[in-house]
């Protein structure tokens, strides 16, 4: 089958990249590969992929730096694929804006399942909404469900698919307090076994993007002893 969605696979181990490519192509994706950071950045600009699978330990530019560069002006889904398995490495990956984190060694079939889940979440295909555009605080925040676009004071801000899904969970359940576990269940990959602190990383990033002052938030509020809730109207 052919779904025309393009995946960029970045890994300096050619055999691993080729295995991933083969499994994704079997699923119907169009796949391009890069074996170093420079080629990864070039191909990202040229091919406009629907998702990036990104190794962190590359010979020239680190995967973390590539993620930072991409997140300046793009919300393309990123799955980090790495041998870095420490909790702090995983939290740092999500803090940089990745949407999933897969550690080596890995199952190619499970990686494909994660790709499918992240793309599905990015498209919002499993989300039931009652309106296409949500306005918060007299237009301070405008959320366009169809375009997957968020504007803050009229300016487009770039949210990752996970951040976008989190924001929708909050705005559609105003004043309801969610535990971290509930937020993981509602906004993240069903195949992902994550720490509760991962949600804190996503909340921190989301606050930096939508709040006037992330240290004194008015939208994403901490509910001590429980988790978080949305305070906008």
UniProtKB/TrEMBL annotation:
An example Gene Ontology biological process: regulation of DNA-templated transcription
InterPro entries: CheY-like_superfamily, OmpR/PhoB-type_DNA-bd, Sig_transdc_resp-reg_C-effctor, Sig_transdc_resp-reg_receiver, WalR-like, WH-like_DNA-bd_sf
Binding region for DNA: 131-232
Bilayer-spanning residue ranges: none
Tree of life domain: Bacteria
Record has DNA-binding as a keyword: yes
Regions annotated as coiled coil: none
Keywords, alphabetical: DNA-binding, Phosphoprotein, Transcription, Transcription regulation, Two-component regulatory system
Domain Response regulatory: 6-119
Gene Ontology CC annotations of this record: cytosol; protein-DNA complex
Domain OmpR/PhoB-type as annotated: residue spans: 131-232
Residues modified to 4-aspartylphosphate: 55
GO molecular function: phosphorelay response regulator activity; transcription cis-regulatory region binding
The keyword Nuclease is assigned to this record: no
Matching PROSITE patterns: OMPR_PHOB, RESPONSE_REGULATORY
Reported function: May play the central regulatory role in sporulation. It may be an element of the effector pathway responsible for the activation of sporulation genes in response to nutritional stress. Spo0A may act in concert with spo0H (a sigma factor) to control the expression of some genes that are critical to the sporulation process.
Name used for this protein in its record: Stage 0 sporulation protein A homolog
Organism: Clostridium polyendosporum
């Amino acid at each position: 089958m052919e779904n025309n969605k393009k995946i960029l696979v970045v890994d300096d181990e050619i055999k691993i990249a080729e295995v991933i490519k083969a499994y994704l192509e079997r699923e119907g994706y169009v796949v391009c590969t890069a074996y170093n950071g420079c080629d990864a950045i070039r191909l990202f600009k040229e091919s406009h992929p629907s998702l990036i699978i990104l190794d962190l330990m590359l010979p020239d530019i680190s995967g973390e730096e590539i993620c930072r560069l991409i997140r300046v002006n793009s919300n393309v889904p990123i799955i980090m694929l790495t041998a870095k398995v420490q909790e702090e490495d995983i939290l740092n990956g999500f803090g940089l804006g990745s949407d999933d984190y897969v550690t080596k060694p890995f199952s190619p079939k499970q990686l494909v399942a994660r790709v499918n889940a992240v793309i599905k979440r990015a498209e919002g295909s499993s989300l039931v909404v009652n309106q296409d555009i949500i306005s918060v605080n007299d237009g301070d925040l405008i959320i366009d469900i169809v375009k997957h676009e968020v504007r803050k004071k009229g300016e487009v801000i770039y949210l990752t698919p996970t951040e976008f899904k989190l924001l929708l969970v909050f705005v559609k359940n105003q004043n309801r307090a969610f535990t971290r576990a509930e937020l993981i269940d509602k906004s993240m990959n069903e195949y992902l076994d994550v720490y509760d602190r991962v949600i804190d990383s996503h909340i921190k990033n989301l606050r930096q993007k939508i709040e006037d002052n992330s240290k004194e938030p008015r939208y994403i509020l901490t509910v001590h002893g429980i988790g978080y809730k949305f305070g906008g109207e």
